[in-house]
Amino acid sequence: MTKNKIFNKEISGTFSIPSGIVATEVSTLEKIANEIPEIGILTTKSIGLEPREGNREPIIAEYAPFSFINAVGLSNPGAKEFAKRLSKINIPNNKFLLISIFGSDEKEFRKVAETLYDYADGFELNISCPHSDKYGQVIGQDKELVGRIAKSVVSLGKPVFIKISPNLDVKETIRWAIKAGIAGITAINTRGPELYSHDGYPVLSNKKGGVSGKAILELGLKCIKEIRKITNLPIIVCGGIRGAEDVKNYKKVGADFFGIGSALAGMNTEKIKEYFHNLSTDLERGTNNAERFLKEKLNMEYKKYRIDKNERLAEDLFLLTLNNNLETEPGQFIFAWLPEKGEKPFSVLDNEPLTLLIRRRGCFTTELSKLKEGDPLYLRGPYGNPLKVDGKTLLVGGGTGIAALYLFAKRSKETFAVLGANDENHLPYIKEFKSACKELHLATENGEAGYKGLVTDKLEEVIKKTQPEFCINCGPEPMVKTAIQKESKHVNPEKIYSSVDFLTRCGIGLCGSCATSKGFRSCVDGTFLKNNQI
Ligand SMILES: Cc1cc2nc3c(=O)[nH]c(=O)nc-3n(C[C@H](O)[C@H](O)[C@H](O)COP(=O)(O)O)c2cc1C
């Protein structure tokens, strides 16, 4: 095997991003495939037969510097839907698409592989996820079952990798899999299951999780050494790689391809591109520049606040005022955590004191709605990029999207705003907006406040009158799309920024769930994005 070849396929680079990290949505997979030449192996998130939502948040925590513990819970859209999504993207020919799959027995694994067969260059068998009761490591414990699973997927005729758990007997698992005809090995999956607590409470909703990143580097090196003693098959390594030194050390013990996952925490897409480029040149020239891109300060630690006021504004809307301030910039957001109840992201309506506008949607926000004065609430953050605009700005907000806009009004001199909601009760903080904005236009669907109709109905009129240089939109996707369309007729599209409620679950770009249709991850690339990024 030459440097940039895997089996008979020429690939553009020897790097990969391991399963379940960053490129978990196909839009991100496609973007990375087309924009990062150093990545030659594209590994998908683990796909099962049926759709799975996965665990409720928190799904990830910072375990130690550059190390994480996660229990995402194998969330995936199911094999059929994933095949449909893969059929809509373009992956260049010089990439090896390794589809990670899981199941509970050989029949299930085979069915998933058959469903995804047309798109795969190879399959990676996830028999190593350490925090599931039904899949992953519990399957990997049974060596004969591993053999049967490997054999049934191998017989489909595409190269099969098994992904090794460092928590089981590595040698035995590999022997069974080699007998079954596997083509390669991916190692290692996360260490665990382990428990991680804060203030005496388990952080992950699943309680137990798997450890990744720097904390498992030594374990990874030990595993690869053991694996190399028993086989010459290609090895894709992942486990705590941060820079060129780690890659060299893994190479020394026998790895062929190099997956970097946890080290990408907090990096936006541009930084990931630069990171891989630097890593590659570091290896050629003996430099050590890639590590400069690692983000040490991720704001993952929880801070304990207390509720000062919980004001009910409407049946499904309330305002939480906390007992302290938060240093934050317009455009950023936080996660609120109630131990053993859950965690969700929220915009910062106001930061002095910290104030959150919350709509009751599900069980977690229902729990928040019950909080009383003095009750504790844990927060982590802020996340997302501060958005700085310098010039006349029009803020356009609908529903709870209003919450992301007030800090812009408070911090800038020349802002105008159009805010809309169903009725007057759903339009909070109006007095504050009025005093911070040069002009405020309101819209309600029932006509109780401002004009009767949608926030976008009179948008063009307001734009013509106020002549903004920038527009900042936040609200439900249909509102934002209409706003962009109308604004683009009058304002340079490069100066229109929008934030839509994407499914943000980790805040540091690792889980990839907040990907836009263009492959940007809202939490690290936004949250306010340009039109061509949404
Ligand atoms: C958020 C997150 C999600 C993951 N999801 C999966 C997964 O779905 N399937 C899998 O085989 N491994 C999964 N892993 C494990 C990684 O693929 C990888 O084996 C591990 O993180 C070690 O690499 P690293 O130290 O570079 O992160 C996940 C890891 C993280 C941090």
TrEMBL record:
Keywords: Oxidoreductase. One of its GO terms (molecular function) is oxidoreductase activity, acting on the CH-CH group of donors. One of its GO terms (cellular component) is cytoplasm. The keyword Oxidoreductase applies. Residues 300-389 form the FAD-binding FR-type domain. It holds the Pfam family NAD_binding_1. The keyword Oxidoreductase applies. This is Dihydroorotate dehydrogenase.
